[in-house]
Design goal:
alpha/beta; Rossmann fold; 2 domains; 9 strands
Length: 333
């Protein structure tokens, strides 16, 4: 196996087989890989006493890491499978790991590993997330399709979470405009059905769709993963749009998270506030109203596109050169 694939197997071992939290994993990466300039292969080949001396790990963490070492063969086999299936692995130390995602996660909790299929350069475009309920009403779905179509026509990358309702409408609006879209999965990347793969593959191959997952490739859908996925959806975006939200649940949590991340949050507004109480509550908390329906889509969305482009350019100017990953950004200090 090539050296790069060997190292990837150790990344999977640390991320998915150690039972450690992303914060602890990222602290190990920060100390061992960034400060000491060692590989994870060297980490797992080292004596546990070296782990204690260099990374100051507790006995319980040492035990988990020691137990994980026995699972290397399975991870090495998985890496070879993924390589054969054209599914790529992106680690927190890779130059192409999205800086925007890294910087919006606090306390070093950014996903250590991302799996993807498609062209990562899609993330360099103006990037706008559209979020909303799986059970959204038809008016919200019509809003989502119209907005995602228009934004995609203007060259924006539309990010959505691959669920029913608003997510599906955002994806459909983007591809109807032959635009760019990023689909963030709430489960492992190999858990897509064959029907889903066939529907996505042509657009992935033509560079229009980027498929992402932070979870083990064979991880099933569960509610907690869907909630974690939402943080990546909003974390990848310069701007977030809410089509329809309750005052609890995944969309609500994702929107509040976007506000905490200091993302510009635009919320569909209607003439009758009683029809969308969750949306109105988000506006009260700092969301910017997007009046709908409207016949002036260009006038309504132009400021949003301009804001996204400004933030994209600012981020590009601030980004470190390849090979100069900011430890500050990694740890979130």
């Amino acid at each position: 196996m090539e050296q790069n694939l060997q190292e990837q197997a150790y990344w999977l071992l640390l991320t998915y087989e150690s039972g450690l939290t992303p914060r602890i994993i990222n602290e190990i990466i920060s100390t061992w890989c960034l400060q000491l300039n060692h590989t994870l292969q060297e980490f797992f080949m080292a004596d546990p006493q070296i782990w204690i001396d260099t990374c100051h790990l507790s006995a319980s963490i040492i035990q988990k890491l020691d137990d994980a070492r026995s699972k290397l063969v399975g991870q090495a086999f998985l890496v070879e499978q993924l390589n054969h299936e054209s599914i790529h692995l992106l680690t927190l130390l890779d130059d192409k790991y999205p800086d925007l995602l890294k910087s919006t996660f606090k306390e070093g909790s950014a996903p250590p590993v991302l799996f993807y299929a498609g062209d990562l350069q899609i993330l360099e475009r103006k990037t706008i997330a559209i979020i909303g309920s799986r059970k959204a009403g038809e008016e919200s779905l019509a809003f989502t399709r119209a907005v995602s179509t228009y934004l995609a026509e203007q060259g924006a990358n539309i990010i959505s979470g691959n669920a029913r309702g608003v997510d599906r409408s955002a994806y459909e609006g983007a591809i109807s405009a032959v635009g760019y879209t990023t689909v963030v999965l709430p489960h492992g990347i190999r858990k897509l059905s064959q029907v889903q793969w066939r529907a996505l593959l042509k657009r992935i191959e033509t560079g229009k769709v980027l498929l992402l997952s932070q979870f083990h490739p064979d991880a099933q859908w569960v509610v907690s993963r869907a909630m974690e996925r939402n943080k990546v959806v909003t974390g990848l975006a310069q701007v977030v749009i809410v089509a329809e939200s309750d005052t609890e649940g995944g969309t609500w949590a994702g929107a509040l998270g976007a506000l905490r991340q200091n993302k510009p949050l635009y919320v569909r507004d209607t003439a009758s506030s009683s029809t969308l109480p969750g949306n109105m509550a988000l506006i009260e908390r700092g969301g910017l109203p997007l009046l709908w329906p409207t016949e002036q889509l260009v006038h309504t969305l132009s400021p949003l596109l301009q804001k996204s482009d400004e933030l994209r350019k600012e981020k590009n100017e601030e980004s470190p050169r390849p090979g100069q990953l900011s430890l500050f950004a990694l740890t979130g200090e």
